[in-house]
Specification:
ATPase_P-typ_cyto_dom_N, elongated, transmembrane helix, metal-binding, alpha+beta, magnesium, about 1150 residues, 9-stranded mixed sheet
Length: about 1150
């Protein structure tokens, strides 16, 4: 019996991951190794099936119910077995969405794949692939699983790949075949391969892979070759600029790196929804309290026998024998059902509708449509619309988000002399460059200039594509002819090579391991490419070793200034360094270029070291790093380059507006500190008056991290105590504020767990305290994981602020998923960020309107919706509670069944739904012009407990007015001409009529933005209630067993005192809210109210002065009446209340 599967499951899930992560052995073509090899143990690997869906047929109902019952309301609805289940819509939507995922999975798993079997190419389906299968992939096809490259159609054994769907980079990357198999050209040759691959177990790091391949030849000892990340083709990547490749599958299905990196988006919950849950708990307690109080009072009132069993209501024998506890519990449940309408069941349905319909306003916004991309804003989730109005921290990427991610070569500096394309070309100074320095005309200087240009033409990984159109590749420029295209994994390299072309040195191609360049004299120079020392983020440089046609060995190196200058032994260092610093301050991306001449012995030694390091089985990366460090030294400095990544349109205005709105903006980037800081100044993240605090590796090398943190903390606290006010008031340019710059290495020290937990906590708290007192923070040299850690750190701080993350690349996905609100930009680094975000926008500038306008409106609307629903349900049910004191606690309803059913469904639902969709308490232009108005709604201001208690108390007050007003006004009074008195149904109908009119007029008083549809819905709802009541009580309905409401409504309306009572009670009920609003606006107005009042004043007085100075009073009056009507439509005069005040002033 085969226990391999059971053993694998136990090892993986029971023993622990540290024991599971070992090695795997892959037999290429599923061939057993020869007898001389180790013992053959067949292993069971998963198939190539991909599963991205959340549910299965078996777990959908329990798992989705668990998600739904995280809402207390849904759990309550299930417990009391109500027919109304507000989560049904969400339940079905989740199922439908997961069904779509299943369809997408099936479509992906059934994609055709070419597999080499018995020397032939066989077409099969993707999910049938197994580890060890040899796969053939053609150009522009996507890799079906993780593959080790065996050979390609290119004679050098390389292939070019785009990994847009993995890391967002649209540029081409170069991968290399195994040296012993790179010569295979046919299916028969590949199928004859007898080899075994040993590699690490699956792990999610896209850039790390360690393995080896044992190639068996004629019963000899196997040839061992090492495998690294440069040999691994990842699932989801696309083959480019290569005819076809042969590769072997090593990771399949859910064990591929793409699947391991798949992070299912957790369901984010807004602060409004959390407030709704908290308020609902209070109302559940109120409901239980009401039922409990009525149950106790009922039995206290029925303690005497004449009340317990009156003469008109004798009990049956069964009722007398029932136990008192059972009777009490039954009565308690009856009261729960009677008062359950206090729980706003329909509120959750209305909120879902409001979010779903409201999200279309973002997609329909024409101002957020980008003509260049041909796309507008996208809403990937509508659950967080109101959260856009609560953002306190904005975390933004730099490249591609604040900047355009369109690299352009600006200049180069050689020995202190500056060269600009089309300004100084081939030694001739053009008229447009009179201020540029002259070229060094000395023979040595001329040679260094030519050597510098050759270095940039040779020290790169750029490939040339000879086609008219290439997808996602920046096109080259060659004498006005669009015949060749440069492709590279780095857009900076493409910009540098194109810059050299404009300066007269053109990189042509890499052919047969020779690099060809066309110099300024139109002569082709050939250099043999011997070794490439690839770029990495630790060294921050790359190098190539080439041999010229004269046999001279040259080592060219380019990299960051901090990694080049310490290795330079000669050259004009000071002049170049000054130019680099100047360019960095201007926001340009800078690189330094150096070279070294190698003797033949030095080259042979370097080549031997490189070869040994590359084939090392253990610690290969460390040995390569040591070898690079030995070779890359004793440089001669040639010069530096400057590449510009321009700031996006209106990026500075957007950041300035976010600052004024009270948000703190953090820039998280992988760029160097100087370049990132210059971008921050250009984008107005830092002002010239900002005092910069540095928390960088350079400073922590001079002092301990502990001392640096405490020094910075003392600095910000001292300044805050001197200034006497917080950061929120520091809006003027003259106010001293702080900006913090921190790098990734220092952040790791701050967040690094230590044995001293107290010290670890103190570091975090001190760092957070410093950040709280800084207006802006720049985090440079950040890894993608560190971006997410920063967001999580702020989220989990004691203030629990609402965070927003925005980026355009796959390296920003982690922080986008971590933040409360994630926004992706449809940029040039793929659509990974846009697909994983909650919202997607074309440009960074659109963030301003999304937050300051849409977010503001959404929060105002939904806050009013939530409070209004609780208010109107209190008004609805509290009279029912009071009525029990007058009916012997008999569970007699005050309202008719039809009114109970239709109150939340028909009579009062549409006005608040429309209000929550179209209300504008202030105009869009005003919100964009005055970002500080965003502060009025910050920190969930409209859904705090004081506001909730006010609405609840207002509902209780109105309910008391409804009930006791009707009770005392009609006590012992006849109302009809025949002397007939009102009965209990007439009394209940009167209370209900006052209730419907009051709650509807309350919403009308809160409405500022009136349109024809507002009038239609609000007054139409009241008219519908009247018409329904007339029909419901004016017709004998044959399907009803009772006709208790027959003629009740018409009888009530036929009474003059009833009309007077209705008007009086409505007025008294609305009066306290009106008085409260007037007093609040006079005593403690909000910033919005103050601004609107000021605008109204300035808009009114000029027309008033002109009116009194008009030479023809009658005509002038008509003219100014017309002008005033135009002013009423102005953006500053909004709402009927403000227009009414203006008329009174006239």
């Amino acid at each position: 019996m085969d226990f391999s599967r059971l053993r694998r499951i136990i090892t993986r899930y029971c023993v622990g991951e540290e024991n599971w992560v070992g090695n795997r052995t892959v037999h290429i073509g599923h061939k057993e190794p020869p007898s001389c090899a180790e013992a053959y143990m067949p292993q069971d690997y998963p198939d190539n099936r991909i599963v991205s869906s959340k549910y299965t047929f078996w777990n959908f109902i329990p798992k989705n119910l668990f998600e739904q019952f995280r809402r207390i309301a849904n759990f309550y609805f299930l417990v009391i077995f109500l027919i109304q289940v507000s989560f049904l819509f969400t339940f079905e939507a989740s199922g439908y969405e997961d069904w779509l995922r299943h369809k997408a999975d099936c479509s992906l798993n059934e994609c055709p794949v070419d597999v080499v079997e018995q020397g032939k190419v066989v077409r099969t389906q993707s999910h049938k692939l197994r580890v060890g299968d040899i796969v053939m992939v053609r150009e522009d096809e996507t890799f079906p699983c993780d593959l080790i490259l065996l050979s390609s159609s290119r004679y050098d054994g390389t292939c070019f790949v785009t990994t847009t769907s993995l890391d967002g980079e649209s540029s081409h990357k170069t991968y290399y075949a195994v040296p012993d198999t790179m010569a295979f050209r046919t299916e028969q040759e590949v199928d004859s391969l007898h080899a075994t691959i040993e590699c690490e177990q699956p792990q999610p790091d896209l850039y790390k892979f360690v393995g080896r391949v044992d190639i068996y030849k004629d019963k000899q000892e196997p040839v061992v070759r090492t495998l690294g990340a440069e040999n691994l083709l990842l699932r989801g990547a696309t083959l480019k600029n290569t005819g076809h490749i042969y590769a072997v599958a090593v990771y399949t299905g859910m064990e591929t790196k793409m699947a391991l990196n798949y992070q299912s988006k957790s369901q984010k919950r807004s602060a409004v929804e959390k407030s709704m849950n908290a308020f609902l708990v209070v109302y559940l307690c109120i409901l239980i309290s009401k039922a409990l109080i009525n149950t106790v009072l009922k039995y206290a009132w029925q303690w005497s026998p004449d009340r317990d069993e009156p003469w008109y209501n004798h009990r049956t024998e069964i009722e007398r024998q029932r136990h008192m506890v059972i009777r009490a519990f039954t009565d308690f449940l009856a009261f729960m059902v009677l008062f359950n309408y206090i729980i706003p069941v329909s509120m959750y349905v209305t909120v879902e509708m409001q979010k779903f319909l409201g999200s279309y306003f973002i997609a329909w916004d024409e101002e957020m449509f980008d003509e260049e991309l041909g796309q507008g804003a996208q809403v990937n989730t509508s659950d967080l619309n109101e959260e856009l109005g609560q953002v306190e921290y904005v975390f933004t990427d730099k490249t591609g988000t604040l900047t355009e991610n369109n690299m352009e070569f600006i200049e180069c500096c050689v020995d202190g002399n500056v060269y600009i394309p089309h300004a100084i070309c081939n030694g001739q100074i053009l008229s447009a460059a009179s201020s540029i320095d002259m070229i060094d005309s000395s023979p040595g200087g001329y040679r260094r200039v030519n050597l510098f240009f050759r270095a940039l033409c040779l020290c790169h990984t750029v490939q040339v594509k000879e086609e008219e159109t290439v997808e996602s590749i920046k096109r080259g420029i060659h004498q006005g002819k669009s015949t060749s295209f440069y492709i590279s994994s780095s857009p900076d390299e493409v910009a540098l090579v194109e810059g050299m072309k404009r300066l007269g040195y053109t990189y042509l191609r890499l052919k047969d391991n020779y690099m060809e360049i066309l110099n300024k004299d139109d002569e082709i120079e050939r250099f043999e490419l011997l070794h490439v020392l690839n770029f990495d983020s630790v060294r921050r440089r790359m190098s190539v070793i080439v041999r010229s046609s004269s046999g001279e060995y040259l080592l060219f190196c380019k990299g960051a200034d901090s990694s080049i200058f310490p290795r330079v032994v000669s050259g004009k260092v000071e002049q170049v360094k000054a130019r680099v610093e100047q360019n960095a301050v201007e926001g340009l991306r800078t690189l330094c270029v150096a070279y070294r001449r190698l003797s033949e012995s030095e080259y042979l030694e370097a080549s031997h070291r490189l070869t040994e390091a590359k084939i090392a089985l253990q610690d290969r990366e460390q040995r390569l790093a040591q070898t690079y460090d030995i070779i890359e030294r004793e440089f001669v400095l040639l010069g530096a380059t400057a590449v510009e990544d321009r700031l996006q349109e209106k990026a500075a205005d957007t950041i300035e507006s976010l600052h004024k709105a009270g948000m703190k903006v953090w820039v998280l980037t992988g760029d160097k500190m100087e370049t990132a800081a210059a971008t921050c100044y250009a984008s107005k993240l830092f002002r010239r008056s900002t005092q910069i605090l540095e928390l960088t590796k350079k400073r922590t090398e001079e002092q301990s991290l502990h001392d640096v943190l405490f020094d910075l903390n003392r600095t910000v606290l001292r300044q805050r105590s001197i200034s006497g006010y917080g950061l929120s008031r520091c809006l003027s340019v003259d106010c001293l504020d702080f900006g913090l710059i921190i790098d990734g290495a220092t952040l790791s020290g701050v967040l690094k767990p230590s044995q001293d937990s107290a010290g670890h906590g103190n570091y975090r708290e001190i760092f957070l305290e410093i950040c709280r007192n800084c207006s802006a923070v720049l985090c440079c040299r950040m890894a993608p994981l560190q971006k997410a850690q920063i967001v999580k750190l702020i989220k989990s701080s004691k203030e629990h602020p609402i965070t927003l993350a925005i980026g355009d690349g796959a390296n920003d996905v982690s922080m986008i998923l971590e933040a409360h609100v994630g926004i992706g930009i449809m940029g040039k680094e793929g659509r990974q960020a846009a697909r994983n975000s909650d919202y997607a926008i074309p440009k960074f500038k659109h963030l301003k309107k999304m937050l300051l306008v849409h977010g503001h409106y959404y929060y105002i609307r939904i806050a009013e919706l939530v409070q209004y629903f609780f208010y109107k349900n209190v008004c609805f049910i509290f009279p029912q509670f009071l009525y029990q004191f007058f009916c012997g606690f008999s569970q007699q309803p005050l309202y008719d069944t039809a009114y109970l059913t239709l109150y939340n469904i028909s009579f009062t639902s549409l006005p608040i739904l429309l209000y929550s969709l179209v209300e504008q308490h202030i105009t869009m232009e005003t919100l964009k012009r005055e970002p500080s108005l965003y502060r009025d709604i910050a920190k969930n201001a409209l859904l705090r407990w004081p506001a909730f208690l006010y609405w609840t108390c207002l509902g209780v007050f109105d309910a008391v007015i409804f009930f006791f007003g009707a009770y005392f006004l009609f006590d012992n009074t006849t109302f009809t001409s025949n002397g007939q008195m009102f009965g209990n149904w007439t009394f209940g109908t009167l209370v209900f009529t006052v209730l419907v009119f009051t709650v509807t007029l309350k919403l009308a008083l809160d409405t500022h933005h009136w349109t024809w549809i507002n009038h239609f819905v609000i007054w139409g709802s009241l008219l519908f209630y009247v018409i329904f009541s007339l029909l419901w009580g004016g017709i004998i309905w044959p399907f009803l067993n009772y006709q208790r409401m027959y003629y009740v409504f018409m009888q009530m309306l036929s009474s003059g005192p009833a009309w007077l009572s209705i008007i009086l009670l409505i007025t008294v009920s609305l009066l306290p809210d009106v008085i409260k609003k007037v007093l609040c606006r006079a005593v403690c107005p909000t910033a919005t109210e103050v601004f609107t009042k000021t605008i109204n004043t300035f808009s009114f007085f000029p027309s008033l002065i002109t009116f009194f100075h008009s030479p023809v009073p009658y005509c002038g009056a008509l003219h100014h009446l017309h002008a005033f009507s135009v002013l009423q439509q102005n953006e500053f005069l909004i709402g009927p209340q403000r227009r009414g005040r203006s008329r009174k002033r006239r």
